[in-house]
Amino acid sequence: MKLKTVQLYKQLNDTVESDFNLLNDEITKLSEMLNDEDFDGDEVIECCEQIKELAKAIANGVESR
User: Fold this and answer.
1) CA 29 – CA 56 distance, rounded (Å)
2) FRET pair for 44, CA 20 to 30 Å: which of 2, 6, 18, 26?
3) Percentage of the chain surpassing pLDDT 90?
4) Structurally, how many domains does the chain consist of?
5) Cα(6)–Cα(21) distance, rounded to whole angstroms?
6) How far is CA 56 from CA 3, 5, 9, 16, 52, in A?
7) By residue range, what is the domain housing residue 8?
8) pTM over the 0.85 mark
9) DSSP code per residue over 11-42
10) Highest taxon of the source (predicted)?
C-alpha cells in the first residue's frame, strides 16, 4: 500500500513540475509578445488565459499533496 502511495505522490509531483515548466514557458511567451510593438491583443488574452489555467492546475496539484 505504501509503494502505491509513493508512486501516486511521485506522479503528482511530476505533473506539478510539468505544469510549472509550461507556466514558465507561457510567461516567457507573454513577455516576448508584450515587448513586440505590434503584438496581437487576442493572442495576449489567449496566453493570459493559458497562464491562468496552468496556475490553477498547479495550485490544485500542490493542494492535493
Assistant:
1) 19
2) 18
3) 66
4) 1
5) 22
6) 28, 23, 19, 11, 6
7) 2-64
8) no
9) HHHHHHHHHHHHHHHHHHHHHHHHHSTT--HH
10) Bacteria
